[in-house]
Amino acid sequence: MSTARPSMMSLSGRDPGLYAASGHARPFRPCADCTCSPGLLSRQGRRSSAFLKQLENTRRRKSGRDPYRVSSLSGSGSESVYSSDMLCQSTKEINTTERLLQLRLQMIKHELCCYIVPSEDEHQSEYVSLADQRRSFISGFTGSAGIACITRNLLNFNEKDPDGKSILSTDGRYFNQAAQELDFNWTLLKQGEGPLTWQQWCINEAKEMSEGLGGKVAKIGVDPKLISLEQVKAFKKKIQDSMSSNVQIELVPVEQNLIDVIWSTFEPVPERSSNNLMLLNSAFHGEDFKEKRSRVLKYIHEKHKGPAALVVVALDEISWFLNMRGSDIEYNPVFYAYLLIDDEGTTLYTDNPFQSDVKAYLQENNVDVKPYESIWEHLQQRSSNRNAKFLVPDNSSWQLIRQIGSEQCQPVHSPLDLFKSVKNVTEIRNARVAQVKDGVCLTQYFAWLEDQLVSNEALIDEYHAADKLTQIRKTQRDFMGNSFETISSTGANAAVIHYAPPEDGSSMIDPSKIYLCDSGSQFKEGTTDITRTVHMTTPTQEEIENYTLVLKGNLAVERLVFPEGTSGLHIDSIARQYLWSRGLDYKHGTGHGIGSFLNVHEGPIGIGQRPSLAQFPLQAGNIISNEPGYYKDGAYGLRLENDLLVKHAQTASGNGKFLKFENLTLVPYCKKLINVKMLTKEEKLQINEYHSRVWQSIAPLLQPQSLSFKWLKNETSSL
């Protein structure tokens, strides 16, 4: 855990000065029944305007000065509204206490010693709607990945005030963020930092309680819709391995979600969106529904000898298969639905409204539409026929298997996941178009930002800079929105891997420090995900050298030629080798699959150290990110991300089939941060050729006398 924090309001919305002014802690000021946690408010994409207005008025009355005046580029000046003595100083200490108490009272009703709160929704989505952010509600941690585990001490017989422990387990991308957002009730369990997993932690706690009660069964509960069958199997095996004569532990399904029971006590419960469905034109998808259905049926017949139905649960797979898009989850063009495919037809379970063109399209393709929740009753009815067989994806929820019956289910990796990861000719052509569009936008953005900060000495904070980038992107035709929340981070904030600037109190971008921008677009042509790290004045020698190490790793992956059958597990070390030579590393994967106007993180491929990646070798037609980085806590962060197309390679020997990468991204690297002396001739040639391609692709789309044109010309000039 880093002791150096990012600048003011970097993540949790709290001013470090509240606790460290003048080198000592300020007096504790209690705040009864406080629910104004900035972390919890930011989870809903908002902050308490009434709270801010009250705070502003108080400041004005006390000092007669403008509370929004910023006295330094870091945004942490003493005149910031967030440094007021009137800010509730006990929010971090108490804002989840009452929530945890109410949860434990519900756990008593179900006789649970432990309750698990996953991040995912019932479709195992990585990014979920506000209504599915239960883990964020109970913990205050707003990152997209992690799992909360809460115990109720069975040895404490006070049922009015039960106590217990609570942990948040997450990966290296979120260590800094979680450390800042979690209050004193929570312990951060860092995945990969030791042998203890969240599953083993739950088992250890349950084991201790079972032993203390003379072998009484200790129940660990979870909503069966929110955990996959594969996770349940692995968890039960760990439990079995931990059993002894005086210990009984049981993993039990709790169909009534306990977070949903208590949520409305503390704040209005968000409603799930159910927006209009959009039909994707053939110019954007390249393969019609009937062709896709034919491919899937062929797979079903090969995988299962005899009639079977494929249940589709992943939202992006449903959108891809139907050539339709939605907007139910922010940044992800998907909609809430289930899908059933068999020889008889296709059944879509959704409550989303649709216009006449979609209605006609569904009727034409014999797609039967039923209410979203009716999937459960329908599966139960069909499974009552003992001859009915179902192919169920390996990421299906535990509840889905329980509803059908395990004896009638054959687990498979969804063929739709595999099919959509290999882009067709139309999708590849469109991906190149999308990258040109985003290359223009990012060129305009970085040129504008540097001019404002350096030439005009303007004060621009991270949030409004990110908003400016969105406004620039909106000028492009068929721009449908960002593909994720823009990571716009200055200085120490860039060391927080998945940093998101808050709207209120965001740090001012300091041109004398590193600035990292990780952003992406959803165009109808495709999805982009691009990171550039820049310096607008004079970087330190350390920053230059470490940036160059990251760049060398990025270039090495891009140059790689490798045999078919190679997975991203084997490629990951190529990106890390130069950092490793200096004893440096980064706590995230090197690459992830990217959808075609779909999710920015797309399975099943990736470049990283997860053993599961070995099951999915890269194929020609995959689009994958290449994003090594380096992060110095409390100082700066570096990341360079390009989107690569996997394609066939022609080798001199002609023996065997080989693959290579094509860099689709068209944004220059930061020349000020490159130590040319650390580059080989091959690397210099590679950068110069890339910059020449960027110039030829983007310059004709810019006004010759514009700032953007001049900035691009300078940044793409030869090393």
State the gist of this model.
The protein is an alpha+beta fold.
What does this structure look like?
The protein contains 23 helices and 28 strands. The protein has a six-stranded mixed beta sheet with strand order 4-3-2-1-5-6, with helices on both faces. The longest helix has 31 residues, at 425-455. It is globular and about 75 Å long.
Features:
disordered N terminus, 719 residues, globular, 6-stranded mixed sheet
Q: Layout of helices and strands, plus pairs?
A:
Blueprint: H1 17-20, H2 38-43, H3 49-63, H4 91-94, H5 97-109, E1 114-117, H6 134-139, E2 147-151, E3 166-170, H7 175-181, E4 187-190, H8 198-212, E5 217-222, H9 229-242, E6 248-253, H10 258-263, E7 278-279, H11 282-285, H12 289-303, E8 309-312, H13 315-322, E9 324-325, E10 338-342, E11 345-349, H14 356-364, E12 367-370, H15 374-383, E13 390-393, H16 398-404, E14 409-412, H17 415-421, H18 425-455, H19 462-473, E15 479-482, E16 487-490, E17 515-519, E18 521-523, E19 526-527, E20 530-534, H20 541-559, E21 561-563, H21 568-580, E22 591-593, E23 602-607, E24 623-626, E25 629-632, E26 636-639, E27 642-649, E28 658-663, H22 681-698, H23 707-715
Parallel strand pairs: 1-5, 3-4, 5-6, 8-13, 11-12, 13-14
Antiparallel strand pairs: 1-2, 2-3, 7-9, 8-10, 10-11, 15-18, 16-17, 17-20, 18-19, 21-28, 22-23, 24-27, 25-26, 27-28
Helix pairs in contact: 8-9, 18-19, 18-23, 20-21
